[in-house]
């Protein structure tokens, strides 16, 4: 796959390991005849380490033997999160320490979770871009503070703490961006 054809979310092989592309920065040449550089911010699917890759537009990376399967969470125990494939009902399990960050964005009954399958083994989770969650605790807004755009911390149902605008109240449902952990809007 040519560097210029790689998009965010694509899984490619870099240095023998599968990496998922999370960000792309294209640097156009200032001199005539120079090559356009593609700077990729990626995450190693197996080790979760961040990787920076710089390629010319004509350089190649192989696409990984990789698939995404729609799954639902069946249960979690003390050590693992257990998932079930929605099509063939195959069970997958992931150690809780590997999905600790993703668990903050997974309220009960979340739809749209996809398992990242590499060599018939589940190596991670792909969450929807935004999730809806309910605020379980936040400070009340102070009257007269509406002239400035201040924010306050709000604790969501999963324990995630998000900065929200001053006018948001406890018990409201909000959309949260799973990539940045930021407040998007009311649900």
From TrEMBL:
Q: Name one GO molecular function term.
A: translation elongation factor activity
Q: Which SMART domains match?
A: EFP (SM01185), Elong-fact-P_C (SM00841)
Residue ranges annotated for the Elongation factor P C-terminal domain, each copy included: 131-186
Q: Which InterPro entries match?
A: Elong-fact-P_C, NA-bd_OB-fold, Rib_uL2_dom2, Transl_elong_fac_P/YeiP, Transl_elong_KOW-like, Transl_elong_P/YeiP_cen, Transl_elong_P/YeiP_CS, Translation_prot_SH3-like_sf
**SUPFAM superfamilies from the xrefs?**
Nucleic acid-binding proteins (SSF50249), Translation proteins SH3-like domain (SSF50104)
List, alphabetically, the PROSITE patterns matched: EFP
This entry carries the following GO cellular component terms, namely:
cytosol
* Keyword Transit peptide found: no
One Pfam family this sequence matches: EFP_N
User: Which residue ranges does the record assign to the Translation elongation factor P/YeiP central domain?
Assistant: 68-123
Keywords, A to Z? Elongation factor, Protein biosynthesis
State any GO BP term from the record: peptide biosynthetic process
Family to which this protein belongs: Belongs to the elongation factor P family.
Q: What is this protein called?
A: Elongation factor P-like protein
Q: Which gene encodes it?
A: yeiP
